[in-house]
Amino acid sequence: GQQVMQIPQYQHVQEGEDFTTYCNSSTTLSNIQWYKQRPGGHPVFLIQLVKSGEVKKQKRLTFQFGEAKKNSSLHITATQTTDVGTYFCVGKIQGAQKLVFGQGTRLTINP
Amino acid sequence: KAGVTQTPRYLIKTRGQQVTLSCSPISGHRSVSWYQQTPGQGLQFLFEYFSETQRNKGNFPGRFSGRQFSNSRSEMNVSTLELGDSALYLCASRFGETGGANVLTFGAGSRLTVL
Q1: pLDDT tops 70 at residue A2
Q2: Contact (Cβ atoms closer than 8 angstroms) between residue A11 and residue A109
Q3: Tens digit of pLDDT for each residue in B5-36?
Q4: B37 Cβ contact partners less than 8 Å away, ≥ 6 residues apart
């Protein structure tokens, strides 16, 4: 069925190291969103990507949407302890009123 | 404006009981969706309501049901609770289905423990 695979499931880094999580869809997406959930908190919207090949930056975070609109990535440069949490993607299936969710990547950081 | 409000925030039930959770979306948002979150399974989609109609449904048994009222508030019900139903239940609202209206705003969740 339609789904989004997100990898890795877990990532532990030293503070200052970079971090990347990837989402791959089995079907074309009309857009993809990224959310962050802090430990004990609820998901909070980070960004939405709509255009093929789109790249957006938010300070140390870089988001990319693939040319085929089937994959996306979130890259954090020089992680800080405030980056701890679970990051997950949400894609909207093209031509359908349906959202598909990545399983999330849990990021932990050693200070 | 007020965010998405979920009640109750915490509850404990025993196996076989039933539970009803409530979600009040952001004013003006017409869509409410529900999710189950567990450490092992991540975020699992339950169902979505748009203008009182169920638009999408995830792969959950019929024990899980929901509804949306004319004021967009939504409830979900789980009957005959099982131990495996212990989870954080999140609801999210969105204004529409295109562009910026497509963004989900999540509530703080209802944490259900089944003993």
Answers
A1: no
A2: no
A3: 999 999 999 999 999 999 999 999 989 999 99
A4: B43, B44, B87, B88, B89, B90, B109
CA dihedral angle for residue A58, residue A107, residue A70, residue A57, rounded to 10 degrees: 10
- Tens-place pLDDT, residues B34-79: 999 998 778 899 999 998 999 888 889 999 999 999 999 999 999 9
| Total length of chain A | 111
Question: Would you call A101 an interface residue with chain B, using a CB distance cutoff of 8 Å?
Answer: yes
Alpha-carbon distance of A30 to A8, in angstroms, equals 23
Q: Which of B44, B97, B107 sits opposite A97 (nearest CB)?
A: B97
Chain A residue numbers touching B99 (CB-CB < 8 A): 50
Chain centroid to CA A43: how far? 12
Contact A101, A89 (CB under 8 A): yes
A103 contacts chain B (CB < 8 A): yes
Listed range (A79-93, B11-25, B62-76, B92-106) with the worst mean pLDDT: B92-106
Separation CA B33–CA B57 (nearest Å): 9
Pick from B107, B80, B82, B113: which is nearest to B26 by CA?
A: B107
Q: Which amino acid is at A96?
A: A
CA dihedral A43, A107, A76, A8 (to 10 degrees): -100
